[in-house]
Please model this.
Amino acid sequence: MKRQLPVMDIRSIFGNGRWDQRFCQKILFEENSDTENRVINLYPEVQYETFEGFGGAITDGSGYIYSLMDEEQKRILMDSYFSPQRMNYQFVRIPIDSCDFSLEQFEAMSDPEDREMKSFSLKRLWKYILPMLRDAEAAAGKKIPIMLTPWSPPAFMKTNGKREKGGKLKEEYREFWAEYICRYIEEFQKAGFCVRCISLQNEPKAVQTWDSCIFTAEEEKIFLRDFMWPAMQKHGLCDIEIYLWDHNKERVYEWMRDIIDEETSPMIAGAACHWYSGSHFEALSLCREQFPDKKLIASESCVEFYKLNPEDTIAAAQKLGEEILGDLQNGVVAFYDWNLLLDEKGGPNYVKNYCLAPFIFDTQEGTLKPQLIQKYYECISSTVLPGSRRIALSRYEQDIAAGAFKRPDGKLVLLLLNRQQESRPVVIRLNGMEASVILLPESAAAAVIDQEAPDPS
Model:
C-alpha cells in the first residue's frame, strides 16, 4: 500500500514585508531519506513542553493612543491581535499602577493612614487601560487571561519615598503591599476580568528613572513566603499563578536557584524573563533542566530605539524573530510582546524611553500603521496554536534559526528564520521523507505540515 505523503504549506515574509514580499508555497514531501547536506530533521515522536500562546501589554500609553483612533481603526487593531484567524493573541499583561509607558505617575491609593484601603480605586485604569481591554475581549470573543505586574509599590511604602529611581519596600509595609496586590486582583475580578497570574516585581534588579523597586533574591523569597502567599491564601487567590524574576535572562537561573526550595516550590508557577541584556538561551535550557516542573514565560520584549535604529525595520524584525524562536526552542511556554500600540515617536512614555510596537498610530496623520515586526509576529502566532507541543529537531547551521511544534490538530509547524542577505536552501526530513525549500534573504517562514493530507494521485 502506497504511503500517504505529507503536504507542507509555507508562508514567507522577506525584505520590508510589503504585499509583494510575501508569498505562499505548497510542497509535497517525497519518499527519500538519503540527503545529508543542508538538512533540518524533524522528530515529532520526541516532545517537550506545551506552548500556551502569545500575548501583549496594554499600558496606560497604549490605551491613551487607542482612545485617539476612530472606531474602524480600533476594530482593525483588535481583530488583528485577538481574532483566531489573525495573530490569535491569548494573553494580556497590565501594570499594577503606573510604569514608564504611562502619561504620568499614578497609584490606586497614596494615603499611608488608610490601612483599610477605603481610598483604593482603579479609576485611573478605567480612563485608558480597561476600556481597551474590554474591546480586546470583544474581539477575542472570550475573557482574556491577564498577567498583573507591579513596577513599584506606592511611594509611601518605599525607602526613597518615591515611585522612581529604585528604592526598596520598607519592611513594615510588606504585609500591606501584599494586601494591596490582592486588592488589585479582586478589583479586576469584580469588574469581570480574569487574572491568570502575577509577577512579584518588574525588573527587581534595575534602578530606573521611572517606576522601579529593588529586591534581592532573598528579599523576594521572604516577601513571597511570609507575606504574598499568606495574603493570597487569606483571600482565596491561590489559583493565581506566581512568577519570579520578571527581568533579563542572564540571571534567571540564579534567581530560581536561590528562591525555590521545598517550602516555596508549591507557591511558584515559574519564572518570567525579558530579553534586554541579550539572548541567553542557554539560561532558559538550564532552568528547564533544573526545574522541570516550573514554567518559563517571556513576559516582555520590545525593540528599544536607543539600541537599534528605528528606521532599520529589517534588523528589528530579524532580532525579534531570533528572540522568539530561540525562546520557544529553549522552553518558553508563553511569549508576551510589550506595548500593543504606540505613537509615531514610540511613546507616550513620561521619561521618553521610546520603543517600537507592532502597530504605530501616527497622531499627526491620523493613520494606523502595522510594522514589519507585526508581520513577523503574525507569521508565528497564527501557526503555533495554544496547546502545541514542542518537538525535537536538528539543523545544519546556526544562521538559520528554527523551532518546531506538533499542534493539537495533529499538524506540524516548522518556524524558520534566515538571517543572511542571501538565499539558503533547506531540505526538511521527516520520517524517511524529504521536501526541499529555498529560504529567501532576511526572511521568516512558517511551514504547516499536514501528515494526513489526501494522496494527490
